[in-house]
Amino acid sequence: MSSWISRTTLSHNAQLITTAVVSGVICAGAVIGFQKVRRLYRVADMKASIPDISPEHVATRLTEYGAAADVFAPSKEDLRSMALAVRARQGDYDNDLILEQLARNRVFLTDEGLSKLRSSFIIVVGCGGVGSHATAALARSGVSKLRLIDFDQVTLSSLNRHAVATLADVGTPKVHCIRKRLEQVTPWTHFDCRNELFSEATAERQLSALDGQGPNYVVDAIDNIDSKVALLNYCYQHKIPVISSMGAGCKSDPTRILIGDISTSTDDPLSKSTRRRLRALGVKEGIPVVFSTERPGPGKAQLLPLPEEEFKKGSVGELGVLPDFRVRILPVLGTMPAIFGLAVANHIILEISGYPHEYLPSKARDKMYDGILGTLQGFEERLAKSRGEDVQGLRLPITQGDIGYLIEEVYHGRSVISGLPTRLCLTRWRKPEDGFIDKRTPGQKNSLLQMKELVCMTKEEAMKHEKEVLRGEKSPEEVYDKNVLEVVKARMEEEKRFQRFR
């Protein structure tokens, strides 16, 4: 072995090969070492370049929903459009060109109407299918100030119904997608984009004035029930004009779409839940809505229940990005949100410009509710009198609004016994215990009647019920069949779920 090594080291070729190998190893080691050192220096430099968070420097943060706030890579065309928009908003855009672009609106609405529209400030809350079409129509019609509020991003599934989104916009905030696309159409429009969730806690800030001008109208295009109710209630209480879009999902008949007061909306689960929650807050009418009267039927799309395996995983609520947010894909025909959104925009354009249009219908059933309240007062007085009570000055803790809520939202304007919609009244379901009259306050007598104790019947049915149950010896189970008992139980259970919103 030693002789082989000796011979090898004396060979000239072997010496060259050995030298080359050693040199290669040394060079490779030097290069790797240099790259490692350089990488360490670059990381150190990058860390050193990051400024500390201070009042002078606010870092761009991810939103609490994981969406990148205001972060997207604009194309060259986007940059040119943004530059033009900046100049246009600063006045570097010929007004004659704007009027020419709005010429058809101008001859329709007149100069005065168009001027009102151009000087208006509109807030759109929810920038999906309905909100994007409403925004696009308002901008194209001349509205100069638009605030867009939405926490969500454009997804691939958004493209079947979104007004302006393209494949390039997937993953970007919806508010900025709309802004950058519409700036290419109406560069003079000022877009105030808020990539955030609307909520009751933030309503005052999000619906505040822009450049000293309060909103002329608010568009509700939200599909989360809590946010929707919070927005409508805030606008109602603060007298801010608002129009709400109800559910476009599972709808396919454009001839059934109507604009009316929220008290008249029917055949729409989202409308029903919204209306009922608002009634619980004391808001029963005065909010225009776009809704569809189309009813579900055989072969039509419907929101299917979640598979059983999803329930077995735990809390279904955890499947959603937000509390009470939909966790299933809602079947939506792409044309329907567009029609809803355009109807919303059309109503706002007519309202602001002063163009004549039909008065939004209302049920105007206050007189009926007053009559039902009077009948209930009579029932309660007769019941108290049969127990030997002095009924002079007896008061009920039930208001006209409560009557409307029970009749319309809980019992759907029909008797629980016969299903008849006429000559309705409310009465106790079960005989009360003794002591249902509170006389603890001197000079005041009031019934301890609660809304959850009342059911809806016709007057004839209520008289019989009073005789046999309330003043007789029978229980409801002895008087009514299984179907009636199940209906009453279902209505009362449903009302229990809604009591937390009152």
* Major β-sheet profile: 7 strands, mixed
* Total count of strands: 12
Q: How many domains make up the coordinates?
A: 2
Order of helices and strands: HHHHHEHEHEHEHEEHEHHHEHEEEEHHH
Low-confidence stretches: 55-71, 316-327
Strand order of the largest sheet: 3-2-1-4-5-7-6
- Number of helix segments? 17
Return the average pLDDT rounded to an integer: 83
CATH architecture of the largest domain: 3-Layer(aba) Sandwich
Helix proportion range: 40-55%
Shape: elongated
CATH C-level class of the largest domain: Alpha Beta
Query: What is the CATH topology classification name of the largest domain?
Result: Rossmann fold
Residue fraction in strands: 5-15%
- Termini gap: 98 Å
Rg measurement, Å = 34 Å
Q: Would you tell me the structural class of the helices and strands?
A: alpha/beta
Keywords: ATP-binding, Ligase, Membrane, Mitochondrion, Mitochondrion outer membrane, Nucleotide-binding, Transmembrane, Transmembrane helix
Protein name: THIF-type NAD/FAD binding fold domain-containing protein
GO cellular component, one term: mitochondrial outer membrane
Family: Belongs to the HesA/MoeB/ThiF family.
